[in-house]
Write a structure and sequence with these properties.
Low-confidence stretches: none
Helix content: 40-55%
Radius of gyration: 35 Å
Number of strands: 2
Mean pLDDT: 82
Order of helices and strands: HHHHEEH
Shape: elongated
Length: about 130
């Protein structure tokens, strides 16, 4: 008696799943069968079918209705007290030791073509901060 090869006895789960899906598709009505076959083809790597053509004016009307429904839903929620947005508390930026008072991240003055320009009030602020540190 010879031993059977392991290839003959191996059970491929993916192949079995595919066969079960194909068998299940056979029981559908024609329209449902075509949709299921297209879905199976996409699952196996085919390109999905293109969307059906819709007249632009009809599309605009559908979108307008969806927007109206959404606003009506939001209005109803607002009246019932759901979904009210809470105001965010502004977080104060923690000051570093190197920060200069009145300037964000040490940015002083303005830059124009690589040159830094300082106004009188910028210079005055720098002088006052130096005096405060002493």
């Amino acid at each position: 008696m010879s031993k059977p090869k392991t290839d003959d006895l191996s059970f491929n789960l993916n192949k079995a799943r595919y066969e079960v899906q194909r068998f299940g598709i056979t029981g559908f009505q024609q329209v449902k069968k075509e949709e299921a076959q297209a879905a199976l083809a996409v699952k196996l790597g085919a390109k999905p079918p293109k969307k059906k053509y819709l007249n632009y004016k009809l599309y605009q009307e559908v979108k307008r209705q969806e927007k109206d429904e959404q606003t009506a839903r939001e209005e109803m929620d607002r009246e019932m007290g759901f979904g009210q947005k809470k105001t965010k508390e502004t977080k104060k930026r923690k000051k570093d030791r190197d920060d200069i008072v009145g300037f964000v991240h040490g940015q002083i003055g303005r830059y124009k073509s690589g040159m830094q320009f300082l106004d009188k009030h910028d210079v005055d602020k720098i002088k006052t901060t130096k005096l405060k540190k002493r």
